[in-house]
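HUMAN:
Just now I want nothing more than another pair of eyes on a protein record. I would be glad if you read both lines and explained how they fit together. I have put the entry right below:
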Amino acid sequence: QQAISLLLLQRVPNHPLARRLLDNADGEAQVRKPDYLDEKAAEVLAGKAASDPEAVAAQARALLASRQASQAIELLEGLRRTTFPTQRFPFLEDLGYAYAEQQQWDKAAAAFADVLAEQDLPPETQQRVSQQMEIVRVERRIAGIRKQTYADPAAALRASEALINELPSHPSAIIFRVECLQYAGKTAEALAL
């Protein structure tokens, strides 16, 4: 851990995570008070650089897990703006998930694309983010179809049929097909799907 921290500090001087790992290199577990994450998040929300970016990201993940994606986005974007204004943002995957949760498909796709563009990405991360990127791609496509066919049930049926033919086992495509069938008044067909 210490060697990795030193290597990271050579590339990115004063990197907060590397600095914290080096400061705690004696192996002692660090016990934090119960409101520690809230305090670190408050720093960022007040426009200050985070003294513990990992704690702020952990708070954003907790917000996301409790279905508070908009607050998670606010916190992560604040962290990016205050603490990583000129550096690669290390929590892009978290930000992508938060944007996806809010159905902000373009921003989610951009965050995931930036993650996938990183060099030396661990295979498990690449696989996980690639899968999420595919979900976002389909959801973005469905959102576009919804806009185009808003007042035209027949067009919605045709578009959903084309999508289900292309992606017959994709959960979002199936749900969208059922919604379009119901929208067109074909409830029996929707129930059969």
About this structure: The chain has a mean pLDDT of 86. The CA atoms of residues 26 and 71 lie 35 Å apart. The longest helix spans residues 123-148. The radius of gyration is 21 Å.
